[in-house]
Specification:
There is one protein chain. This protein is α/β, with parallel strands linked by helices and 502 residues long. The chain has two domains: 6-259, Rossmann fold (3-Layer(aba) Sandwich); 286-471, Rossmann fold. The strands form three sheets. Strands 1, 2, 3, 4, 5, 6, 7, 8, 11 and 12 form a ten-stranded mixed β-sheet that branches. A six-stranded parallel β-sheet has the order 15-14-13-16-17-18, with helices on both faces. Helices cover 39% and strands 19% of the residues. The chain has helices at residues 22-36, 53-56, 100-103, 121-139, 155-161, 190-196, 203-206, 214-221, 230-238, 247-252, 289-299, 323-335, 348-360, 373-382, 398-404, 415-420, 441-455, 458-469, 475-490, 494-501; strands at 6-10, 40-46, 59-60, 67-71, 74-86, 91-98, 145-149, 174-179, 187-188, 212-213, 224-227, 257-259, 310-317, 339-346, 365-369, 385-388, 408-412, 434-436. The protein is globular, with a radius of gyration of 23 Å. α5 packs across α8 (214-221). Bound molecules: adenosine-5'-diphosphate and alpha-D-glucopyranose. The site of adenosine-5'-diphosphate has 18 residues, from α1, β13, β14 and α14.
Length: 502
């Protein structure tokens, strides 16, 4: 192995402390996979009020008891505490940045009562980004790489190259910014820029339609940019709609943009050792999956019938996830011989829509509005078909989890879904699921019908399930790619060397 690196991994959500979506799964698993490769990696996140210090053994660090951060014209006092992510093979140190006023709330980004973003999300993450750098100095731990994730951490590279550029402590520290979803950029008015304390002269460069855009600033200032699948990397650079207005910015950085597919932590997401499911199973005992199907249907008060496939979704209820296609074709879907189960929370518009569907088709539909890790596992184990009709999908984890559980994915061919699901061909027996390309309800229905007709031929369906169950998307492959990238950043530029040699 080459020289071990020191890496600080920044994320606004990390399993098991706080989660709204896949970023939390990634922030739990990727640091472990990197540590397993022999590097020193530590994670830092906000200490939200709901994170129990007792449950997670979170303790004080004397040196980090007082961290003063200017945000706008206020001086905010914070502190940082520590605990660990405990994996199967390694433990990863986690620092929690605490501030009563900013983080002692019951949501991560959204007020659970009004369902609106907290109005001071700009300050909350300005505080975080500056707080990270101040904590490092006080701690005296200098990372070689700071790996940022999404807009909430995207100002760190900007601070490093402006306010902190002359600080010897940070000399040579390189930054990576991973975009998990370009649909969320952290867009605030110009007044937020003043709160950030960044030098006035950079506003012209980083502004977006007159606004302060955290993600755009991060894209321009980080040393490399990655996103979570090769296809999504291409999409957000070449298509301004998929790039959500930032494709021109990404084009400027094109040679520094990489697509690295997310992985799966099979110690958490495997039917043979899933602590949440009633009856574990594997490819050798595939029939046992149906005990979980029975339990799932019982949970929703639906009748079990071996002949009828359960089509399921687990999803944030957001525009991105394609629920308007469901709205369009639900009545046609309900004419098919299926049962439909959804677990999700988010946009009240979709929550109401799903409740309405449940009321209209009580014998065929099960809906759980809310967030439940346990139910998510039971659905993966008990369903026959997993539906992801996403408008766009940077990577998507549930389709990969589904493959391992023998739950056949029916997905739209976009982003990471296109990179992880292969169309099943009944003649060759190859492939792992069913895809549709056009964002249309009818095309979704066609793909679903293809799956249903395959389901009827038991032998073929079993082959399809097994194809998925033997796919391997473990994190090691992706972790190696991140490490290669870190190492590339640490290597002195070739150009400079050639100049010297002359
Ligand atoms: P995204 O990050 O866009 O939400 P991913 O497919 O990458 O999509 O990851 C979603 C993660 O969040 C998965 O681990 C999934 O099981 C989980 N998840 C989403 N909604 C819920 C919910 N309502 N209850 C439990 N888990 C959920
Ligand atoms: C985002 C994306 C999702 C991806 C996840 C983890 O929330 O929407 O596609 O899998 O981040 O990278």
């Amino acid at each position: 192995m080459t020289q071990p690196l020191n890496i600080l991994f920044l994320s606004s959500e990390v399993v098991p402390f706080a989660k709204t979506g896949g970023l939390a799964d990634v922030s739990f698993a990727l640091p472990q996979a990197i540590k397993e490769l022999g590097h020193e990696i530590r994670v830092m996140m906000p200490k939200y009020g709901f994170i129990s210090e007792r449950k997670f053994g979170i303790h004080e660090i004397v040196r980090l008891r007082e961290i003063d951060i200017p945000v706008g014209d206020k001086l905010q006092r914070g502190s940082a505490k520590a605990s660990f992510i405990v994996g199967q093979k390694v433990k990863v140190q986690v620092y929690f940045l605490e501030n009563e006023f900013y983080y002692n709330r019951d949501g991560l980004y959204v007020d659970s009562k009004t369902k609106k973003d907290y109005s001071d999300n700009d300050e909350r993450f300005i505080f975080f980004c500056k707080g990270v750098l101040e904590s490092l100095k006080k701690l005296g731990w200098r990372p070689d790489i700071i790996h940022c994730n999404d807009w909430q951490t995207a100002l760190v590279p900007v601070y490093l190259k402006t306010l902190y550029k002359n600080e010897p402590f940070f000399n040579g520290v390189k930054t990576v910014l991973t975009i998990h979803n370009i649909g969320y950029q952290g867009i605030f008015g110009k007044e937020s820029f003043y709160k950030s304390g960044l030098p006035d002269e950079i506003f012209r460069e980083i502004e977006h339609n007159g606004n302060f855009n955290f993600l755009k600033a991060g894209i321009l200032y980080s040393d490399v940019i990655t996103t979570v699948s090769p296809t999504y990397a291409k999409e957000i650079i070449s298509d301004d709609e998929l790039g959500a207005g930032l494709s021109a910015t990404l084009k400027k950085r094109r040679k520094d943009v990489y697509g690295i597919l997310n992985g799966v932590d099979y110690s958490v997401w495997s039917p043979e050792n899933d602590k949440y499911i009633p009856v574990p199973y594997s490819i050798q005992t595939i029939e046992t999956k149906y005990e979980n199907k029975k339990a799932l249907l019982k949970h929703f008060g639906l009748e079990y019938n071996e002949e009828i496939p359960v089509v399921a979704q687990i999803s944030r209820l957001a525009e991105q996830k394609g629920f308007d296609l469901i709205a369009e074709v639900i009545d046609e879907m309900m004419k098919l011989d299926i049962q439909y189960i959804v677990l999700g929370t988010g946009d009240p518009k979709y929550e109401e829509m799903l409740e309405k569907i449940k009321r209209k088709y009580p014998k065929k539909v099960g809906v759980h509005i809310g967030f439940s890790e346990e139910l998510a596992h039971l659905i993966e184990a008990g369903a026959d078909i997993f539906l992801m009709p996403s408008r766009y999908e940077p990577c998507g984890l549930n389709q990969m989890y589904s493959l391992r559980y023998g739950t056949v994915p029916v997905v739209r061919k976009t982003g990471g879904l296109a990179d992880t699901v292969e169309e099943f061909n009944s003649k060759t027996g190859r492939g792992t699921g069913f895809l549709f390309e056009k964002y249309s309800g009818q095309d979704l229905l066609k793909a679903l019908k293809k799956a249903l007709s395959t389901y009827k031929i038991r032998k073929v369906w079993l082959k399809l399930m097994k194809n998925g169950m033997t796919k391997d998307f473990s994190w090691t492959t992706s972790a190696k790619k991140y490490v290669e990238l870190y190492q590339k950043l640490m290597t002195p530029q070739k150009k400079a060397r050639t100049v010297k040699a002359k």
